[in-house]
Amino acid sequence: MTLRKKVLMFVGMIVLFGLACTYFSLDRILLNRFAQLDERALNADMKNMILTLEHETENLKINMTDYSASNATYDFMTKELMPEPIEHEDAPYIRSKFNDAFFQTNLLHFAALIGTNGQVIYNRFYDVAAGRQTLPPVGMIDSVMANRGALIHFDGEFQSEKGVIATSEGPMLVVSLPVIRSTMEGPIVGALVIGRFLDAMEIERLMILNYSQFSFQLANEVQIPETHANADGSPFIWFDNISNEKVVVHSLVKDVFGNPYLVLSSEKTRNVYNPGQFAVKLYALVLTLIVLFISVGIMVVIDRMILKRMEGLVINFRSITQKQDFTLRISSHGSDEFAQLEKEFNTMMSSLEGSRNLLEKQAIYDPLTLLTNRAYFFNKLESAISKAKEQEVRLAVLFIDLDRFKWVNDTWGHDYGDDLLKVIASRLKEGMEPENTVSRLGGDEFTVLLTNIAGKEAAYLKAHQIHTALASSYSIKGRQFDTTASIGISIYPDDGSTPEELVKYADIAMIKSKESGRNLLSAYSNILLEDLERKIMLEAQLASAMVNNEFHVFYQPIVDAQTLQVVKVEALLRWDHPEIGRISPAEFIPIAESSGAIIALGNWVLNQACSDIKKLREFGYPDLIVTVNVSVMQLEQDQFVEVLSKILSEAQIRTEDIELEITESTTMSQGKAAGALMRLLDLGVKISVDDFGTGYSSLSYLRRYPLHTIKIDKSFISDMTVVDYDRTIAKAIIDLGHHLQLKVVAEGIETEEHFNLLKALGCDEIQGYYISKPLDVESVCEFLKDRSAASESTIAQNNNL
Q: 690-697 long-range CB contacts below 8 Å, 24 or more apart?
């Protein structure tokens, strides 16, 4: 296919697409107003056709003004009108002014110079087919002189006549101008009359100018409505229906004397869609003709001046494309547009080459730290595994996660965090052997690939060096930061044989370091995977465990150290798994807190405890207080206080019947937990601080909140009979509580020696297996019944209950 055809096809497609879009838009708009728009559009089209006809006669008038208002014409007419004419039709004036070029240029068929009294001085007809002037057909002068010569008589120098007249050869556009001097002054000595037949060629030209299809018929051949005039003098237009979809628009064209002569007709579609489709087709046709016309004119130029140059460019483009070499350039010469195109192409190739290099770099490197990224690390690890497999050597993957990095971002902003990551990346690269790879997986996670190592001990030694390097202080924008890292280690082929396995197992080992207190190194083992899988399994089954009634609440009695009377019981949650058996709260409570299930679980415990308080009342223990542990996540819920109030109200439990135990770290919170704590205290709920001495102790918080009880953690109790420090700490906590008017409870009492010592130190209440193990609510009632008459000497006997 030639370039010309391609250009034409391309333009045609654009035109068709544009017309289609136009049709779609007009189609939607015209749907609601098709009837009004039909009539308005058809009237406008017909008026445009009439206007085109008037423009043609107006153009003829303008073009002939130079001939009619001319001293030469005026003088010629004056001489010819004399009794004895001086000149004749073959005079030099006629030959120079009314030659063949005059007729051809103005597309004229007839021209005449007529005196004011009707004398025909000049009268010629131009035969287009023969290309020469002849005498006018018989009757043409009579047609011009009809109606008493109204066409050649004027009331003033600026008057003219134009329109259509009937001749023996058919309708003719005619213009009559007065012959006057070039100064536009009279007297008028005659008229210049010119004519152009309204033949098929002229009609086709008018249709092209008007972008419409129409035809002319004699008025006496068409049935015209009786009323064929408008009061405002505008063209009279009427319609004839052909079918439900078509309509013919007619307009009456009067001759120059005002007599009905021609009917201008145009066939149109009737509804909103058909006119739109017709317009689209007509518009496409015009555009196609224009494109064809322009194409014919420029194809020679394209062939001679552009095509060969473009063929050269295509050859060069094709060569570069086939070689896919971004370093190739086109030899550019000259200063024309093609030379500019060649230069721009070379510039584009340079840009593409730079972009490709940048993309290759971005595909490998992390933009912040300039370490290799995750994708590169996995590819490198996969290659290293293949090589290690061939050479039968080991390699190690270190998974590094920064400790408390989120605190840096949250406290000082991401700018500090980004700078810290850059410094850490620099430290990781320092002292790293060339064969090893350091990468940033994302966030504050980094990986190190150690190749050709002796075993886990060598990997651990290298990890220890990295751990030590990262533990040093960092100076960021004048501020000192002490950031540590938790590191996990996995070994190929001992721990895994694929990149995914090695990274996953190193990640698991890193998580173990985090859970063990952070700032540690941990090597992967199957036990870690089993622990992780167990946590995932337990987390997944927490919700179903509540539905399946696998959770149970047990109660451990708390006795007054002096009277040995049971004053409280602590609600303790137990999970009896149908397959695993009993699961320790120390295992599933952290999982519930991390997953958010602690909210629903804690509310369930509160409901169950309130239900059991009612049972204790029924057994005759109305003053027994039940203590319930509350998670900080529960306290941070906006509706926690309302939920607790609703539970107490529905169970008909007094606020003094329940005591909430919170960990010491909870009291340190300045957010929602602290606010909920104050609202609970205002509500009258007693608050006990559990595990006192193990968290972030703050005497100011003990003074700020009107707490009721503190519980000494059992870690201080177990060795207090042999370790003086623990005994001293216990004594200090007891004295502190008493000075603050708080009750002090010691938990984890296992022996009589512990009991006697704490009693001697002044502890208020005792809790532990020495008193009783946790019991269900029915067993608690039996225990209380048996204890009602018990004395201090019988405590050891009841220890086995």
A: 690/629, 690/661, 690/662, 690/663, 690/664, 691/663, 691/664, 692/664, 692/733, 693/664, 693/729, 693/733, 694/664, 695/663, 695/664, 695/665, 695/668, 696/664, 696/665, 696/668, 697/664
What are φ and ψ of residue 158, in 5° steps? -100, 5
Q: Which residue did the predictor score with more confidence, 87 or 48?
A: 48
Q: Among 93-102, 119-128, 344-353, which is the least confidently predicted range? A: 344-353
What's the token pair of residue 340? 């500019």
Retrieve residue 326's tokens. 């971004």
Q: Are 690 and 662 in contact (CB under 8 A)?
A: yes
Structure tokens that stand for 610 in this block: 């309130």
Q: Which of 219, 112, 238, 122 is nearest to 176 (CA)?
A: 112
Q: What whole-number percentage of the chain has pLDDT above 70?
A: 80
Quote the pLDDT of residue 90: 67
29-32 long-range Cβ contacts below 8 angstroms, 24+ apart = 30/272, 30/273, 30/275, 30/276, 31/272
Instruction: Give the tens place of pLDDT for each residue, 664-717.
Output: 554 444 567 778 888 888 888 898 888 776 654 446 556 667 788 988 888 888
Cα gap 28→37, rounded to integer Å: 13
Q: Which two tokens stand for residue 496?
A: 């895994």
Encode burial over 438-464: b for 16+ CB neighbours within 10 A, e otherwise: bbbbeebbbbbbbbbbeebeebbebbe
What is the C-alpha to C-alpha distance for residues 248 and 188, in angstroms, rounded to an integer? 45
Neighbours of 734 (CB within 10 A): 20
CB 483 within 8 A of CB 403: yes
With beta carbons less than 8 A apart as the criterion, state whether 190 and 77 touch.
yes
Phi then psi for 555, rounded to 5 degrees?
-130, 130
Q: Where are the beta strands (DSSP E) in 611-669?
A: 625-629, 658-663
CA distance 404 to 470: 13
Residue 328 has pLDDT above 60, yes or no: yes
Place of tokens 């998974």: 399
Token pair recorded at residue 519: 């700032």
CA nearest 381: which of 393, 397, 363? 397
Q: Say if residues 134 and 127 touch (Cβ distance below 8 Å).
A: yes
Q: What is the pTM of this model?
A: 0.46
Please state, in angstroms and rounded to a whole number, the distance separating the CA atoms of residues 197 and 453. Answer: 105
Q: Is 1 helix (H, G, I), strand (E, B) or coil?
A: coil
Rounded Cα distance, 475 and 464, in Å: 22
Give yes or no for a contact between 396 and 489, defined as CB atoms under 8 angstroms apart: yes
Residue 171: cis peptide before it, omega within 30 degrees of 0: no
Q: At what angle do helices 34-68 and 200-210 cross, to 10 degrees?
A: 120
- The dihedrals phi and psi of 352, each to the nearest 5 degrees, come to -65, -40
Please say whether the beta carbons of 61 and 194 come within 8 A: no
pLDDT band at 179 (very low <50, low <70, confident <90, very high): very high
Give me the residue label for tokens 């001759």. Answer: 255
Angle at 663 between CA 658 and CA 668, to 5 degrees: 115
**Amino acid letter for position 687:** I
For residues 27 and 23, what is the distance between their CA atoms, to the nearest angstrom? 6
Check whether 576 has a pLDDT greater than 60. yes
- Calculate the dihedral angle through the C-alpha atoms of 300, 304, 305, 306, rounding to the nearest 10 degrees: 80
Please tell me the distance from the alpha carbon of residue 664 to that of residue 710, in angstroms, as a whole number: 9
**Four-CA torsion 630, 632, 634, 638, nearest 10 degrees:** 140
Tens-digit pLDDT profile for residues 587-635: 888 888 877 888 889 999 999 999 888 888 888 888 889 999 998 888 8
| 3 state DSSP class of 628 | strand
752-761 vs 724-739: helix crossing angle, rounded to 10? 40
In the block, tokens 């509706």 appear at 639
